[in-house]
Amino acid sequence: MALLNIQSAIKQVQQIVRKLEPPQGVEILTYKRNRGITIIKIDDENLSVQERGYQDNSFQVSTRELARLLKTIAKREFPRSRKVRVYPLDSPYCLGIKRKQI
């Protein structure tokens, strides 16, 4: 997927997550693809959010709490970034895929 403005990417990720089926997910990466946030849909209401980069954390949140958590993590992981990359994940097993580092 193309580079997206960080504010519009958060709104777009929320829309994408609503449409996903439970084992699917979304990955948000920096331009260089060295830091990111992974969101996996566990069931209709619960999500698993993993933060990789400056800090490595895992969170279990509901779909209603996702926007607030994403804004908090985005400020920490993407402090100077204005653009991010958003990739869909077919299953949690797609997490290990190496993306081209710039």
Kindly summarize this structure in a few lines.
With 102 residues, the chain is an alpha+beta fold. The protein has helices at 6-19, 66-77; strands at residues 3-5, 25-29, 36-41, 46-52, 57-62, 83-89. Helix 1 (6-19) crosses helix 2 (66-77).
Assign the structural class, choosing from mainly alpha, mainly beta, alpha/beta, alpha+beta, or little secondary structure: alpha+beta
Distance between the termini: 16 Å
Radius of gyration, in angstroms, nearest whole number: 12 Å
The number of strands is 6
Weakly predicted, low-confidence segments: none
Beta-strand proportion: 25-35%
Mean of residue pLDDT values: 88
**Helicity, in percent?**
25-40%
What is the molecular shape?
Answer: globular
Number of helices: 2
Strand order of the largest sheet: 1-6-2-3-4-5
Order of helices and strands: EHEEEEHE
Main sheet overview = 6 strands, antiparallel
Task: Tell me what you see in this structure.
This protein has 102 residues and is an alpha+beta fold. Helices cover 25% and strands 33% of the residues. It contains 2 helices and 6 strands. The chain has helices at 6-19, 66-77, and strands at residues 3-5, 25-29, 36-41, 46-52, 57-62, 83-89. It has a 6-stranded antiparallel β-sheet, covered by helices on one side. β3 (36-41) and β4 (46-52) form a beta hairpin. α1 (6-19) packs across α2 (66-77). The model has no long low-confidence stretch (mean pLDDT 88).
